[in-house]
Amino acid sequence: MDGAVVPLAWAGNGHSAAAAGLACHSQGVIGADFPAVLAAAQQGDEGAFSVLWRDGNPALLRYLKVIAPEFAEDVAAETWVWVIRGLDRFRGGEGAWRAWLFTTARRRVVDERRSRSRRPESPAAEVPEGHLPGADPADRALENLATRQAIAVVASLPPLQAEVIMLRVVAGLDTDAVARLLGRSPGAVRVAAHRGLRRLAQMMTEAGVTR
């Protein structure tokens, strides 16, 4: 389903519980209202843009805290700046929107690492005033202990496995979208997901994260 959070069954029955700590607090899915919300946001409706932001930002931050924990918040802010700049040119459904959001974030991570390799201190991106909503208490509630533990465990996996799991389970992207984003074959993505979730199940059980 376009834009739907991926069912945990994709990973195999033995690994569903391992991913539950990440997916149970995933962002909502806009669903049938997405075309209208997108069109309004593209026309400058800040309320509609807030819907896009509140839907995507929690998962975006969790993803960035795994692949770039040292500057996750800075990159998230910069990602939304790029989204604002390119929003009127975006075309596609909710699945394409999520793929674009996470692809934009990954590119910003690459750019930030290049920038920091040239200069140790890099200022946070300036966000246009009045465009991004303030932090919502519901967003902070997503950062409960179980979620933080799960993210920490995922971050300890090999980088490819960790990123595939976050993109599949938290971002809700399908295998083909993840393969395109990472420049890998769908088969390689499936193998990385299987191996990562098998290891994740073991590690989360040892850490006492799963029920």
Detail the topology: elements first, then pairings:
Elements: H1 16-23, H2 34-42, H3 46-67, H4 72-86, H5 94-118, H6 137-141, H7 145-155, H8 159-170, H9 175-182, H10 186-207
Helix pairs in contact: 1-10, 2-3, 3-4, 3-5, 3-7, 3-8, 4-5, 7-10, 8-10, 9-10
The major pleated sheet works out as: none
Number of helices: 10
Mean pLDDT: 78
The secondary structure category is: mainly alpha
Strand content: under 5%
How many structural domains in the coordinates? 1
Would you kindly provide a written description of the structure presented here, covering whatever features stand out?
65% of the residues lie in helices and 0% in strands. By secondary structure, it is mostly helical. It has one domain. The chain is globular.
Primary descriptors:
211 residues; mainly alpha; globular
Task: Characterize this entry briefly.
By secondary structure, the protein is mostly helical. It has helices at residues 16-23, 34-42, 46-67, 72-86, 94-118, 137-141, 145-155, 159-170, 175-182, 186-207.
